[in-house]
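re: that chain from earlier
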Amino acid sequence: MHVDDFIDGSYADQKTGSKLTYARWVLNHFRLSASLKSDFRQFMKDHKLFCTWKGKRYRCTGASRMGDVWLAENFDREHGYDHRVDVAECEDWGAQP
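^ sequence. v structure.
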């Protein structure tokens, strides 16, 4: 699934809707232009995104225009990634590790 399709989806009626809505909001920020991300950085600094992929917890650090999301093993890492994966393979999204 392309990350934009995930962002544009509607998950409000699901049990985990608020976690998915938070994930969609942060992923949407990742998909903004570089200038907007730079302008909004001060507001986003405390909004981290985490998920579980293949049974392990990761910090999500970005989303590409090709549709994948970027996962980092180090929870303090803000840029870069260890894995680029399909957003549909991720679960248990949230603001906490």
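Residues 17-30 form the longest helix (14 residues).
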